[in-house]
Every structure is written in structure tokens, then in C-alpha cells.
Write a structure and sequence with these properties.
Among the domains are: 15-68, no CATH class; 81-141, Seminal Fluid Protein  PDC-109 (Domain B) (Ribbon), CATH 2.10.10; 164-412, Single-stranded right-handed beta-helix, Pectin lyase-like (Pectate Lyase C-like); 606-684, Immunoglobulin-like (Sandwich). The strands form nine sheets. Strands 13-16-18-21-24-27-31-33-36-39-42-45-47-49 form a 14-stranded parallel beta sheet. The chain has a six-stranded parallel beta barrel with strand order 20-22-25-30-26-23. It is mainly β.
């Protein structure tokens, strides 16, 4: 503020002007209370302090607006509609009655009405002056368009998100396909995915197989952590048009944890895969020739439709913890082949129909499952161990199951239906059990048929082979040379070596056309117990068996037993068997114990003991007779015992069918007191 305000022009040297100039300069520089002051010409000027305040306010303003701008990328949700709520940028939206609204008027705006309609109105083509615009799902669309959008989309199948598919937990095969191939798949056209599927496997992660028809022209090598999950075998299929296996597993290396293969079908339309497998585990040995394992593969809901064009299902070697469940196949020559060190394998609820199948090159038969010995580079020999097969059905295979080595192998509720040559064949191993299994037979058979074949494979060793609770349903052979072929429910031993350790217990033999239900060709130690024979004819036939236990077998009243042994040390126990002993030849009669409704041996005795108290003095040279009641045949023999004093001579014999008489004689020169409880052992005749 100037004192004199002469308003003389610039450059004036008047003393008053110089005074005003000095005064104004002082206030301009040093005043800390006023932001403005007028000069000597009467013009209002910003003081230095005023310019500082303008600068500070500007910095505060741009800082705040910058923060708002950063927060307003996309939509900035202010929340529910409320009077007094302030809208100060265009990205801010307010929620009212199920929709989001954006303010179109001048900012900033403080909401004064109780609704958009009452706070400036809602914009529309009929109300272009409205201040609020209903943006609907624009917020969601903005979020989907952001880098986080894939996390908001739930994927079909396992409930993961699209982000999971793309970034690691599960990746769709469509990630690898070109738009043209995706369109081909969606359009229902079989599409070549050979290169893309191999790339997906190489990424070492699970792959989602969308519904569609696919084919490959070369084998696909699976990485250690790769696998395929599809929407189901009716919706997704892979056709093997290569000349080898479809998937090769194991080359990816050792990795613990479970890898899931699930929900697709496999076909083979080419003509070069009859000796190949759908899943082939590669031979894996370290530098020293020891097995190296592939671990933890799970196969579920996979259907293989081969019709004779694809040879096998699973070829397993150097692996453990493989689980195959709820799968099926048609036309495979061999669904399962387990070779060498295959540990802890489970097969559950698998069904194979062998229509159209033929034996693979180098193999004489079609099989449902085989186990096999393998010799490794370091000289060690391994066989499958810890195999459990349950609720599984092999239909129309030449041989249902062949065990050629293995330890702890359990087959429970497994069917070998419409088998041609054998149902279950034990050909070596240890602790092998066939429990509750079923064998059905093809009617037209050009060779012998055996439901359960148990030869000796370790001479002198008690081989643990159990056939328990199983059923054989035989049929009459309709082959033109049927009279040349045998039909047996169970065969024990097939050579000069006697099978030792076989147990056939609780089985049922039904149908017609048997030469024998159970046939022991050569046995060293065999137990045949509690079996049921529901047909007429030979139930049990023994050509040779050194030790035989045959207890509790029953038939329909028209069954026969043919039992023979030429061994001088043969020992047989035959008890409570219901059918006719048509022929029994055992040259060691002392080794035969038999008690059956129609047949008993001369060596069988029943011993009964009765007791009686006595208190008497037997004078020198006299005889005392003591009677005891008992039910006894007159032909029985009696032995007497107890605390009988030395010097007395005694014997006992039946006095009648209800009385035993014991005689005591004192040959000494002094009286002897007999005061004790004596017993009588009665041996009844047959």
C-alpha cells in the first residue's frame, strides 16, 4: 500500500514517488500476512508471500488430481447412493437400485436428491438434459478387459479359472491351437493336433482337452508332470493314426505326486498299430543297469475303442503307484501287460470286450492281463509286486489272466468270461490269490480248457497259490473234435513235478461238459475243501498226490470222486465229502484217514473216555473186578489207567453194551490198597 499515490509516470524522481517505491518493495518482499498489495499507481499486485501460496496450492491440487486419476483407471465405485456424496471425476460411479450410474454434469457435484431421477434426472434419448447415465455392466466389462480379467472367468470341468488354465494349474489345448484349428474342432471336424499336443506335453503341466475329435500322426511323449483331462470319453476322442504307441510315458523323468489322465476316449483308425499300446511306459535304467521309476500316474474314465486296430492298453515297466479305474476297452489284444519292476499297481472297475482282437506279433494268445519277469542290465531280475485287480472283467480273451512271476498279487471279483483256453493261469510267482473270481467259457473250443491252471513252477517249494470263493461256469464243447479235448474247472500240476501248496476252497462249479471239476495231475501237497459241484459226473479227480486234504466238498448227489496215488508215503485226509467215491487207490493204507457218508477208511477210530472212582483192598493172591457204566459196542477195545499201585495186574473189556468190567489181580505176598479214580479209554470200531 503506497502512502502518497502521486500516480506520476514510471521513471519519476520525485521524493514522494521514491518513498512509495521503497515502501512497496519492503511490503512485496517481507510481508507474511497479505497475498496482495496495490502499487503506487493503484494496481493490485501479488506479494512474494502470495505467489508462494499460489504455488503451494497448485502443487497440492495436481497431487490430489493425480491420485484421483490413478484410482480412476477403469471405474471407481463410490458405493451406494447417498445424499451428500461428492462426485469429482468422470470415472466415479454410484450404485442405485441394482444399477451403476455415472454423473454427466459439471464437477464437482454433491448429491442432493434421493435418486438419480431427483438429482438432475436420468439421461436418455428422450431426456438428453439428464445428468445421470445408467451404465449397467460397464464396470464388469472394464474389469474383464483388465489384466485381472481372466481371474473372473470360471472354467468348465474342475471349477478352476481361466487364469489357472493359462498360467499353470491347468492349460487348455486351445492355448496351443491356431484359430483355424479351434474353429475346426468346434465345428466337429477331426483335427490334427500332433505338434500342438507334443508342445503342450513339453510344457510339463496338465492339459485340458476340450470336447472334440482329434488325431495324431506320431507318438506323444509325456513329460514328468504332464497329463490330459477331458470332459468325458463321449465328448473328447484322440485317434492314433501313427505307426506306434499313442502316449509314451517315462521319458519325462522321475517325479513324485499324482498325474491324472482322465475323461477322453482313444481310437485307432490306421492299420499300423496292432502291436502298439495306448499308454507305453518306456524302458528306464540308470547307467548301472538298475531300474529307474516313473511314479504316480492315475488313469480314470478313459475308453479305448480299438476293434483290433490297436494292440494293447497299458504296457507297464519301471513304475509304481499306477492306478487305473473306471476305464474300459473294446477289441484290445491285451489290455494290461506288466513287465519287470512294476510296484503297487491297482486296477479297479475295468471292462474289456475282446471282439475283433487278434494275438499280437510274437504272442500265441490274446490276454486280459499278464505279469512277466524282466532281467535288467545289472543282472538283477524283477517281477511285478503288489498288484491288486478288483471288479474287473475280461470278455472274449483267449486267456483271461496269466501270472508269469510276481509277489503279492491279488485278483478279487475278476471275471474271465467267454474265455477260449484258460481263465486264470498261474505260471510262477509267490503269494498269488484268486478270490471270488469267475470263469465263463466259449462253447466252440479247439483245445483243452482249464478254468484255473496251477502247475508246479518251483520244485519242492510250497507255492502260495489260493483259489477261494471262485466260480467256473463250464459249457459243452461244440467243436467237431471236442472228444479230443479236456474241459477242467481247476487243474493242479502239469508235469512230473508235484505242485505243492495249492488251496482250492469254497468254489462253485456249474454248467455242463466237465471232464472233472478239480483235476490234480501231480500234487505234492494240495487242499481241496468246501467246494460245491452243481453238475453230475466227475467232481474231483486225482491222478497223483502225495499229501491230500479233501474236506467238506458237496455235490448234487450224482457226483463222483476218482482218487489215485502210487506213492508208498501218500497221506490223505478225506472227511465229510458227500459224493460217491467211485475209485480210491492208495497203496499206503496206513496213510489214509477217511470218514464220509459213502466211504470210510480202516484206520479211522473214535476214542471215548469214561471215569469211575474205586476204593478197595486187594488181598494177596486174589482178584478184584470193578464195573463202570458206559455205552460201548462189544467189539470195542478198552484200555484202563489211573493212579494204580505197583504190583497189581489189570485189564478191561466190555461186559455188555452198557458196562465195562476191569479185573485187578494181586500176585504179591501182601495186600494192596486201590483207592483212586480210574479211567477207561474206549476205541470204537468203524
Amino acid at each position: 500500500m503506497s502512502t502518497y499515490k502521486t500516480k506520476n509516470p514510471l521513471g519519476s524522481a520525485a521524493v514522494k514517488d521514491l518513498y512509495d517505491n521503497a515502501e512497496n518493495l519492503d511490503k512485496f518482499v517481507n510481508d507474511r500476512t497479505k497475498e496482495e498489495s496495490d502499487d503506487r499507481l493503484g494496481v493490485l499486485r501479488k506479494t512474494w508471500y502470495g505467489m508462494e501460496m499460489i504455488f503451494n496450492r497448485f502443487i497440492a491440487y495436481i497431487t490430489g488430481r493425480g491420485e484421483q486419476a490413478v484410482g480412476a483407471i477403469g471405474w471407481q465405485e463410490l458405493g451406494d447412493w447417498a445424499i451428500g456424496l461428492t462426485v469429482d471425476n468422470r470415472q466415479q460411479i454410484v450404485y442405485y437400485n441394482g444399477s451403476w450410474y455415472k454423473y454427466l454434469g459439471d464437477l464437482e457435484h454433491v448429491i442432493a436428491g434421493d435418486s438419480p431421477a431427483n438429482d438432475g434426472g436420468i439421461w436418455s434419448k428422450d431426456n438428453p438434459a439428464g445428468k445421470w447415465s445408467n451404465i449397467g455392466d460397464a464396470a464388469l466389462r472394464s474389469s474383464l478387459g483388465s489384466s485381472e480379467g481372466t481371474k473372473l472367468i470360471v472354467a468348465p470341468g474342475n471349477g478352476g479359472t481361466l487364469h489357472d488354465w493359462i498360467n499353470g494349474q491347468l492349460r487348455s489345448l486351445f492355448y496351443y491351437l491356431s484359430p483355424a484349428k479351434i474353429a475346426s474342432v468346434i465345428g466337429g471336424t477331426a483335427t490334427d493336433i500332433t505338434a500342438e499336443l507334443q508342445t503342450a506335453m513339453n510344457d510339463n503341466r496338465p492339459v485340458w482337452l476340450p470336447a472334440g475329435q482329434y488325431y495324431v500322426t506320431a507318438s506323444i511323449a509325456a513329460a514328468a508332470n504332464s497329463s490330459i483331462t477331458g470332459p468325458g470319453p463321449r465328448l473328447a476322442s484322440i485317434d492314433n493314426r501313427s505307426s506306434s504307441h499313442l502316449f509314451i510315458i517315462g521319458a519325462g523323468g522321475y517325479l513324485r505326486g499324482c498325474k491324472l489322465w482322465k475323461g477322453f476316449s482313444i481310437t485307432a483308425s490306421g492299420d499300423n498299430t496292432a502291436d502298439s499300446y495306448a499308454f507305453y511306459y518306456s524302458d528306464r535304467q540308470d547307467a548301472n543297469g538298475a531300474p529307474v521309476y516313473t511314479i504316480g500316474q492315475i488313469f480314470s474314465e478313459i475308453e479305448i475303442n480299438s476293434y483290433g486296430k490297436l494292440g494293447g492298453g497299458w504296457y507297464l515297466q519301471e513304475c509304481f503307484r499306477v492306478v487305473i479305474s473306471n476305464c474300459g476297452a473294446t477289441g484290445l489284444s491285451q489290455p494290461f501287460r506288466l513287465v519287470g519292476s512294476v510296484v503297487q499297481t491297482t486296477i479297479d472297475n475295468f471292462v474289456q470286450n475282446g471282439d475283433g482282437a487278434a494275438a499280437m506279433t510274437g504272442r500265441a494268445y490274446t490276454y486280459g492281463l499278464t505279469t512277466e519277469i524282466k532281467t535288467y542290465g545289472n543282472g538283477s531280475v524283477f517281477t511285478p509286486e503288489g498288484l491288486t485287480v478288483v471288479n474287473t472283467r475280461f470278455v472274449k480273451q483267449d486267456i483271461g489272466v496269466r501270472v508269469s512271476g510276481g509277489l503279492f498279487l491279488v485278483f478279487d471279483a475278476v471275471e474271465a468270461d467267454y474265455s477260449k483256453y484258460k481263465g486264470f493261469w498261474y505260471d510262477g510267482g509267490s503269494q498269488v490269490s484268486f478270490d471270488n473270481c469267475y470263469v465263463g467259457v466259449q462253447s466252440y473250443r479247439d483245445a483243452d480248457f482249464v478254468g484255473f491252471d496251477i502247475p508246479a513252477r518251483a520244485a519242492g517249494v510250497a507255492e502260495s497259490v489260493n483259489v477261494r470263493g471262485c466260480t467256473v461256469n463250464m459249457s459243452v464243447n461244440t467243436h467237431e473234435s471236442a472228444s479230443s479235448y479236456k474241459s477242467l474247472g481247476v487243474r493242479v500240476g502239469d508235469s512230473s513235478v508235484g505242485q505243492k501248496g495249492a488251496l482250492i476252497d469254497g468254489c462253485t462249479f456249474r454248467g455242463d461238459g466237465y471232464d472233472a471239476g478239480i483235476y490234480v495231475y501231480r500234487g505234492a501237497s494240495v487242499s481241496i475243501n468246501n467246494n460245491r459241484f452243481q453238475y453230475s459226473g466227475v467232481n474231483i479227480s486225482v491222478a497223483e498226490c502225495i499229501n491230500l486234504v479233501m474236506i467238506g466238498n458237496s455235490g448234487n448227489g450224482a457226483g463222483k470222486y476218482l482218487l489215485n496215488s502210487s506213492s508208498p508215503v501218500a497221506t490223505w485226509t478225506l472227511l465229510n465229502n458227500t459224493e460217491s467215491f467211485e475209485s480210491v487207490t492208495n497203496i499206503n493204507p496206513g496213510g489214509l484217514v477217511a470218514k464220509n457218508a459213502g466211504y470210510s477208511s480202516a484206520t479211522l477210530r473214535r476214542i471215548e473216555r469214561v471215569s469211575s472212582p474205586v476204593s478197595v483192598t486187594v488181598a494177596s493172591g486174589t482178584v478184584y473186578q470193578h464195573a463202570a457204566p458206559a455205552t460201548i459196542p462189544l467189539a470195542a477195545s478198552v484200555e484202563v489207567g489211573g493212579a494204580i499201585p505197583a504190583g497189581l495186574l489189570f485189564s478191561a473189556a466190555p461186559a455188555s453194551t452198557s458196562l465195562i468190567r476191569a479185573t485187578f489181580f494181586n500176585p504179591t505176598g501182601a495186600a494192596i490198597t486201590l483207592s483212586t479214580t480210574i479211567y477207561f479209554d474206549i476205541t470204537h470200531p468203524n
